[in-house]
Amino acid sequence: MASIEFKDVAVDFPIYNASGRSLKKRLISAATGGQIGADPLGRVVVRALEGLSFTLRDGDRVGLLGHNGAGKSTLLRLLSGVYMPSHGSARIEGEIGSLIDISLGIDTEATGRENIYLRGALLGMSKAELKDRMDEIVAFSELGDFIDMPLRTYSSGMHLRLAFAVSTTVRPEILLMDEWLSVGDQGFKHKAEARMRELVQATNILVIASHTRELVLETCNRAIWLEHGKIRMDGPAEDVAAAYFGN
Ligand SMILES: Nc1ncnc2c1ncn2[C@@H]1O[C@H](COP(=O)(O)OP(=O)(O)OP(=O)(O)O)[C@@H](O)[C@H]1O
């Protein structure tokens, strides 16, 4: 069983090399992005998220909607544990799998096989688990003997194949994604899409940020619309998509 409970969550980014003198003391909304303001000491602060309260349970497939800078990536990073809330509480129960940056932890000097261990460790897999899965990951990547060559000898597509093969080998209870991953040439793309669907089906909770109406309607049963870091609407995917994208 997985669950996520946010209560009045805010995320502030203090900006140390900007002057707060031209800013008002309270937070103001820029045309796009979060709210820019100054703290009591005159330091500039970007409030990326504010007053977020929601609960996600098993079966929730949530699309995060919102314009550029609305706070979608910040919310995904908060869920993945990269950021902590500046205010409020975020309770997350369940194993998290993040496909937000599948190339994170990849070392170009190391071989493909070594990188599987590196990336796998970042995904929370043990060495023994990775050893068991190694043949399957290598076979999925279709890299053949290149798997024992350093990554600097790979093309960008080969690099992505490897990152994808290892990143999608986990079966997390909570899956975080930034748009739908689409990697490789035509043949691999087909295989990758099937694997993504399988992954999404197997997860208890999915949270995916997207700018695509079709993706949200096909994949999600709920959507949260963020605007300037606040929740503008939270409800069934069809209703929120209709309000956000227009009918
Ligand atoms: N590291 C950071 N330092 C300062 N401000 C940041 C940082 N990361 C994000 N922000 C600010 O937080 C706000 C939300 O950004 P975020 O990247 O979460 O938006 P988004 O909805 O994912 O946008 P997009 O659709 O463009 O990817 C923006 O105003 C941005 O300027």
Task: Note down, in words, how this protein is organized.
The radius of gyration is 20 Å and the shape is globular. The protein has helices at about 70-80, 110-120, 125-140, 155-165, 185-200, 215-220, 235-245, and strands at about 5-20, 30, 35-40, 45-55, 60-65, 85-95, 95-100, 175-180, 205-210, 220-225, 230-235. The protein is built from 7 helices and 11 strands. It has 2 domains: about 5-95 and about 205-245, Rossmann fold, CATH 3.40.50; about 110-205, no CATH class. Helix 2 crosses helix 3 (about 125-140) and helix 2 (about 110-120) crosses helix 4 (about 155-165). With about 250 residues, the chain is α/β, with parallel strands linked by helices. Adenosine-5'-triphosphate (ATP) binds near residues 46, 48, 66, 68 and 69. Keywords: ATP-binding, Cell membrane, Membrane, Nucleotide-binding, Transport. One of its GO terms (molecular function) is ATP binding.
Topology diagram in text:
Layout: E1 3-19, E2 28-29, E3 35-38, E4 43-57, E5 61-65, H1 72-80, E6 87-93, E7 96-98, H2 112-122, H3 127-141, H4 156-167, E8 174-178, H5 186-202, E9 205-209, H6 213-219, E10 222-227, E11 230-236, H7 237-245
Parallel strand pairs: 5-9, 5-10, 7-8, 8-9
Antiparallel strand pairs: 1-4, 1-6, 2-3, 3-4, 10-11
Helix pairs in contact: 2-3, 2-4, 3-4
Bound molecules: adenosine-5'-triphosphate.
Adenosine-5'-triphosphate (ATP) binds next to strand 4 and helix 1.
What descriptors fit this protein?
P-loop_NTPase, Bact_Polysacc_Export_ATP-bd, alpha/beta, five-stranded antiparallel β-sheet, Rossmann fold, single chain, 2 domains, 247 residues, binds adenosine-5'-triphosphate, 11 strands, six-stranded mixed β-sheet
